[in-house]
């Protein structure tokens, strides 16, 4: 059933952004209304072409020979990422996803009994599972930092926990933007406190990278993990870890191989000194090259311009939802981003997703099972997640509203 929504009074979003060009570069926009950018964004044709070109090169001249021929492009990926986050290229490891990047830093940290790990309600499920395993093995303890009244991580509570507690804080591991909501945690304020306290700070920037400026100096984090396929619009199966130069040698990666280390004599080895100690030898070169192209492509738009556009679209969508009976928006925080979560009264999130999919609209579902420190504490069920990117249009948002099942 199609209901015509009431005309919205909102003005067109960011009229100066060249959306036409963004969509010309993005073939997928001709097929679907893609509002699952927090799952995996549609790649620009430049990325897809670079990936395919390298696969073809491998097929034409051999895999090792193709890697050799494309060595500059592979190196470019490190420089592009470093440029985007304000780091050095020796501080970047490119790996197969963000979880593995995060793991290499986390499992490379040695915990003693009584060491405290501070984390956030926004934390990603895989990170918490790893913390629980390590806490069980090592005797470290996990504390969840309170949120403030806006729903973002409470700086006052973090300060209190850093100042005082039953043992030393070994690590602050928090998520910048949760997978299940539009919240942006105050990453730089957290960094100011961890620096003052001299405590290690690991930031999960999976959902923030590519949709807003992320600068490791401004934030003050020591380690940062991110993925390629979300707001960066890179290929699937890519991610990276940033590790601060003067700390790299303190981290013994949980796995070593002949790329991460050199076998210097029959009974000795030496671990590399740069961040590539967190990588492993065999890798998907085509995807790695594609990731670099995606980062350069984002830089060509400017991350500030991307953020302004994304925030404009998400704000418009929240306003549209707020005008609908039975629809509730659940995004928290003082600062919000392109992820919009909501429920429709009387209709499960899965059913909303299914009906939208039938109408050519891609959204996803944020499961309670993946957000146990967040959704249950807010007494929320599974949520529908519509995540916008700069190539989305006001017309697409109207289409979502029009295709939405009504509450019954
Ligand atoms: C998607 C996501 C991850 C995991 O990224 P992968 O590349 O799938 O490993 C981690 N943290 C957050 C906040 C995410 O949204």
TrEMBL record:
Cofactor(s), names only, from the UniProt record: pyridoxal 5'-phosphate
Keyword DNA-binding: no
Listed GO MF terms: transaminase activity
Low complexity: compositionally biased ranges: 1-16
InterPro entries to which the protein is assigned, alphabetical: Aminotrans_V_dom, Aminotrans_V_PyrdxlP_BS, EF_Hand_1_Ca_BS, PyrdxlP-dep_Trfase, PyrdxlP-dep_Trfase_major, PyrdxlP-dep_Trfase_small
Bias type Basic and acidic residues, positions: 18-27
Protein name (database record): Aminotransferase class V-fold PLP-dependent enzyme
Lineage top rank: taxon: Bacteria
PANTHER family attached to this UniProt entry: BLR4730 PROTEIN (PTHR43586:SF24), CYSTEINE DESULFURASE (PTHR43586)
Domain Aminotransferase class V, chain residue ranges per copy: 35-400
Matching Pfam families: Aminotran_5
Family note: Belongs to the class-V pyridoxal-phosphate-dependent aminotransferase family.
Signal peptide (residue range): none
Keywords: Aminotransferase, Pyridoxal phosphate, Transferase
Region annotation Disordered: where it falls in the sequence: 1-30
